[in-house]
Design goal:
alpha/beta; disordered C terminus; binds S-adenosyl-L-homocysteine; TIM Barrel; 2 domains; DNA polymerase, domain 1; two-stranded parallel sheet; about 375 residues; binds iron/sulfur cluster
């Protein structure tokens, strides 16, 4: 268990600030020109104790002001679960006491951190454990960036020399919440994560997963250019209406038009579609053919996800033979697919298994 203090209310937490905001904070004492050094120190070296800035030739009066008026906060981690397959789930405590989950998935050539964007979710997709937890609130940009900083702490990555390979290389917004229902904070955090003088994770290594919130998809494409994963789960409106209530707001025809518009802007990249197979619901040969028809002509890649059960779930996973038969139909039509291995299932860290206790607020969407 790790517990680290958060800044007191009187201090400004520098985590989550944009570069412009950091510069203007520093500028108030005439130190705007040192913004880059402070930014790199905290995001690339994990600096937290301002006295360390002395070694970087920062003026004493700046260090004194930072020490008195600012802090580089860290979200405390209450539990660290390790799965038998190496996946880790961290229960992160927010300043107001809410808890969220971040999951780290190590692989041979990369390590992916799955971050949360909300406490709970408004969208009540019927197969998703998070969807049974009413939305308590959106995360702030600081709380999203904070999940990455905590991960670097726990993975002991700050002391690595210069350009040594990191364990955490990729970020996916596939934890709790619908990222595009918290667009502004997610976008602000992504800008911090991509900044080359800081955490420097490129847009090609960041993926935002959405249940299909069209306005967010369009803005994300224009403003951020990161990868998009669209949670489809059915190519038929009648089925999708039943498992994902958002389909009634943004039905498939509109969703696919938005996908084509997205593709139009960045034609070099394939869109990623997630398709969780639910036994007897969306896993028939007809469902596979409907998917082929829906994605016809759209450069895409389909991730087939075996359903991850959770206590009280109203669905069962499709048997592996059914998943393979479904995949075969897609393969035969030259569609690129992959069956996503379930990771961290034994610690309820797999897709759609995340849930923490939260207060309930009315549904709003
Ligand atoms: N809210 C976003 C991102 C979080 S969910 C979204 O819906 O896309 C991350 C992925 O897990 C989504 O593709 C979601 O549909 C899928 N998922 C949710 N519950 C699942 C479950 N029980 N088994 C398998 N996949 C699930
Ligand atoms: Fe929310 Fe995504 Fe879960 Fe649906 S699948 S309830 S959008 S977190």
């Amino acid at each position: 268990m790790t517990t680290t203090e958060m800044p007191t209310a009187a201090r400004t937490d520098l985590v989550g600030l944009s570069r412009v905001a950091l510069r203007s904070w520093l500028e108030r004492s005439g130190h705007g020109a040192h913004e880059r050094v402070v930014w790199t120190w905290m995001h690339r070296r994990g600096g937290r104790d301002f006295s360390g800035l002395a070694a970087l030739n920062m003026p004493r009066d700046l260090i004194r002001r930072l020490t008195e008026e600012a802090a580089v906060g860290r979200l405390p981690v209450e539990f660290r679960h390790r799965s038998g397959d190496g996946t880790e789930k961290w229960l992160v405590v927010l300043p107001d006491g809410h808890r969220i989950e971040s999951v780290f998935i190590p692989e041979t050539s990369r390590g992916t951190l799955c971050v949360s964007s909300q406490v709970g979710c408004t969208l009540t997709c019927r197969f998703c454990h998070t969807g049974t937890q009413p939305l308590a609130r959106n995360l702030t940009a600081a709380e999203i960036v904070g999940q990455i900083l905590v991960a670097r702490d726990l993975l002991e990555e700050w002391s690595l020399p210069g350009e040594a390979p990191r364990r955490l290389t990729n970020i996916v917004f596939m934890g709790m919440g619908e990222p595009f229902y918290n667009y502004d904070a997610v976008a602000e955090a992504i800008r911090v994560l991509m900044d080359r003088d800081g955490i420097a994770i490129s847009k090609r290594k960041i993926t935002v997963s959405t249940s299909g919130v069209i306005p967010g998809m369009l803005r994300c494409n224009e403003e951020l250019g990161v990868n998009l994963s669209i949670s489809l789960h059915s190519a038929r409106d009648d089925v999708r209406d039943g498992i994902m209530p958002i389909n009634r707001k943004y039905p498939l025809a509109e969703l696919m038009a938005a996908c084509r518009a997205y593709q139009g802007v960045s034609s070099s990249r394939r869109l990623l579609f997630a398709y969780t197979l639910l036994k007897g619901v969306n896993d028939s040969d007809e469902d596979a053919k409907a998917l082929l028809k829906l994605l016809d002509g759209l450069p895409s890649k389909v991730n087939l996800i075996p359903f991850n059960p959770w206590p009280g779930a109203p669905y069962e996973p499709s048997p592996m033979e059914r998943i393979l038969a479904f995949q075969q139909i897609l393969h035969d039509a030259r569609m690129i697919t992959q069956i996503r291995h379930t990771r961290g299932e034994d610690i309820l860290a797999a897709c759609g298994q995340l849930k923490t206790a939260s207060r309930s607020l009315p549904q709003t969407f």
